Automatic annotation (TrEMBL):
Residues 213-305 form the Asparaginase/glutaminase C-terminal domain. This is Asparaginase. One of its GO terms (biological process) is asparagine metabolic process. It comes from the Bacteria. The active site is at residues 16, 91. Keywords: Hydrolase. SMART domains: Asparaginase. InterPro entries: AsnASE_II, Asp/glu_Ase-like_sf, Asparaginase/glutaminase-like, Asparaginase/glutaminase_AS1, Asparaginase/glutaminase_AS2, Asparaginase_C, L-asparaginase_C, L-asparaginase_N. The keyword Cell cycle does not apply. Substrate binds at residues 58, 91-92.
């Protein structure tokens, strides 16, 4: 059973969950993490610490914030008295941050990311319940890995993706079901907690300005290779093609991508389909990102290039 005395650290980064305004025209990141906690009376009895890492709209998430967030999360997770860490985040880039932290840290304690689709001042605010659920999950004995707690469901970092721009139930797991659910203060686990081998903080030690540049190239009807040429000339070392269907790539991009690869650029393919991932590896196809979304594939390729350096 969960103990209310378990110490949980809350790291704030802004996002809609900290927004002020109406359901569409709000300002993300307007409130600090302490204000968010005060809005949830049920958390008053919990043993919590709060720290503001950033205060931004997650559409503007950057590598420097990722670097700082990973360092602070690792610091608190290493403290023996801390049972788990919660990160409040915007929904737009949540899946990228989740995968970045899972690959770097693969924590044996729960590192829970939560968010909301309505600002804190909305009549339909979903943030308070999501935050309460996230704290509940972070204190759950045996829980581990980077987990996303939204709308009463718990998703693994590898699976979670935002599939709806407005509804409160905006997140899914592709072909994967939730890892768990949170119901009235109880964590109901359906699958094994996510595990992995941590790349380690040393992977991201270089200054952000020195990180390899990795971009996403969409494949679509009538596409021209202008973006491929521009990114290669700008010094990008990795390209993820957001392919159609099962990761297929428009023929107009093939020759420019081959030329890029000959210059040492790593080229991967992902699928723009929201549910499921790429199946198989046809002869001659670019390396597959598997079940990763294009955004998460870019994170994975970035980290692999950092490890390679």
């Amino acid at each position: 059973m969960q103990s209310e005395s378990a110490r949980i650290v809350i790291l704030g980064t802004g996002g809609t969950i900290a927004g002020a305004g109406d359901n569409v025209g709000y300002a993300a990141g307007s409130l600090n993490v302490t204000q968010l906690l005060l809005a949830v009376p049920a958390l008053a009895s919990r043993t919590l610490e709060a720290e503001q890492v950033a205060q931004l709209d997650s559409k503007d998430m950057d590598h420097a914030t990722w670097q700082q967030l990973a360092r602070r999360a690792a610091h608190h997770l290493a403290r023996p008295e801390v049972a788990g860490v919660v990160v409040t985040h915007g929904t737009d880039t949540l899946e990228e941050t989740a995968w970045f932290l899972q690959r770097l840290l693969a924590p044996i304690k729960p590192l829970v990311i939560t968010a909301s689709m309505r600002p804190a001042t909305s009549l339909q605010a979903d943030g308070p319940q999501n935050l309460l659920d996230a704290v509940t999950l972070a204190g759950e004995p045996g829980a581990q890995g980077v987990l996303v707690a939204v709308g009463g469901e718990v998703w693994a970092a590898a699976d979670v993706r935002k599939t709806q721009p407005f509804r409160i139930d905006a997140f899914e797991g592709g072909d994967a079901p939730p890892v768990a659910s949170v119901r009235e203060g109880r964590v109901l686990r359906w699958r094994d907690w996510p595990r992995g081998v941590a790349l380690g903080l040393e992977t991201i030690e270089p200054p952000v300005a020195d990180w390899p540049r990795v971009g996403i190239v969409p494949s679509h009807a009538g596409v021209e290779p202008v973006l491929v040429h521009a990114l290669v000339e700008a010094g990008y070392l990795g390209l993820v093609v957001e392919g159609t269907g099962n990761g297929t790539v428009n023929a107009a991009l093939e020759a420019p991508l081959q030329a890029a690869a000959q210059r040492g650029v790593q080229v991967w393919r992902a699928s723009r389909c929201q549910r499921g991932g790429i199946i198989g590896q046809p002869e001659g196809a670019w390396p597959s990102a598997g079940a990763l979304t294009p955004a998460k594939a870019r994170v994975e390729l970035l980290l692999r290039l950092l490890v390679g350096r």
